[in-house]
Amino acid sequence: MIRSEGAKMVIRLVATYIGAVIGAGFASGQEILQFFILYGYKGLLGVLVATILFAYLGAKVLELSVRLKCSNYQELLAYLLGPWAGSFMDKLSLFMLIGGLGVMLSGSGAVLQEYMGLPRWIGIGLALVFVIAVIFNGLRGLLAVNVILVPVKLLAVAIIACLALAFKGLPQNLPVLSGLGVGGHWLWASLLYVSFNMVVPLAVLSSMGRAVSKRVGIYAGLLGGLGLGVAVALVTLAGLAFYPEVAHYQVPMLYMASGASSLLKPVFAILIWLAIMTTAIANAHGFASRLAPEGGRRYRVIGVLACFAVLPLTNIGFADLVKLLYPLFGYAGLLLLAALLVVPLFKSRIY
């Protein structure tokens, strides 16, 4: 059994794991549409595969991080990929984290402009202030914010999906689709989805290696993965109920929310913004903790500088940034996915 203090840490880690994965793409429903809904009933099989992988990989990342006493993801990458490939992946991960931070800041501006009619710079500025405030409080700030924001975000996703299902009803005749989504096959799509979404969690969770116990890490990874699976399943079912109309919308969750109730639109806008914030915080923390694993003043300075350094990226626009950067993130994630699945099986001891 886990004592009360350990249980609190499990909750914090579960929230941090889920918060690192559920970003703007998930909350908008576009990711779920492309990776699962467009495969019809086979997409539900993909959800099952993704859930199992999220649970296993989350537990494995935390378990390895504790065993290796990691303070940042560089140490875990060196163990998984070796010196040369680990160094290459380290540099690529830094680029992905800083690029992801730019995408999230741009997304904040896009949300406030599209759903609230405010200038983009206000959304970007609010996100900047929020992320910097969390960075100034270090690891404790990251965990505290996620404990508050992630349950709200997860609950909002579940409520919108459930209301949409209540309005439309469970899909009676699940569409039989083939090759319409990402990857051309439901199994490959589910693998790509997991690999795409494990880059940021690996960067964040690996920094916890000296702060948690092995048992706490394994419990948190398993529960976080299962929580992600439930959220993906709910959105997938709701999307299938609204198929094929939902496939024609850039923001499928907004369409489903509006179909259930027009009052859900502002709730949805808040949901998207919260999703962006938790992912932006995870990116900033992963970047800063890699370059300043000891924390303290250097960690805060690097985190703040990273936030300002990515501001030029926000001029490109949210949709264009996603189109430009996310494919790279997905293919890089495949290397991590393969290493996490294979390497621990052949390394029975730490060298």
TrEMBL record:
<feature type="transmembrane region" description="Helical">
    <location>
        <begin position="324"/>
        <end position="346"/>
    </location>
</feature>
<feature type="transmembrane region" description="Helical">
    <location>
        <begin position="92"/>
        <end position="112"/>
    </location>
</feature>
<keyword id="KW-0812">Transmembrane</keyword>
<feature type="transmembrane region" description="Helical">
    <location>
        <begin position="299"/>
        <end position="318"/>
    </location>
</feature>
<protein>
    <recommendedName>
        <fullName>Membrane protein YkvI</fullName>
    </recommendedName>
</protein>
<dbReference type="InterPro" id="IPR038728">
    <property type="entry name" value="YkvI-like"/>
</dbReference>
<feature type="transmembrane region" description="Helical">
    <location>
        <begin position="118"/>
        <end position="136"/>
    </location>
</feature>
<feature type="transmembrane region" description="Helical">
    <location>
        <begin position="186"/>
        <end position="205"/>
    </location>
</feature>
<keyword id="KW-0472">Membrane</keyword>
<keyword id="KW-1133">Transmembrane helix</keyword>
<feature type="transmembrane region" description="Helical">
    <location>
        <begin position="263"/>
        <end position="287"/>
    </location>
</feature>
<feature type="transmembrane region" description="Helical">
    <location>
        <begin position="217"/>
        <end position="243"/>
    </location>
</feature>
<feature type="transmembrane region" description="Helical">
    <location>
        <begin position="39"/>
        <end position="59"/>
    </location>
</feature>
<feature type="transmembrane region" description="Helical">
    <location>
        <begin position="143"/>
        <end position="166"/>
    </location>
</feature>
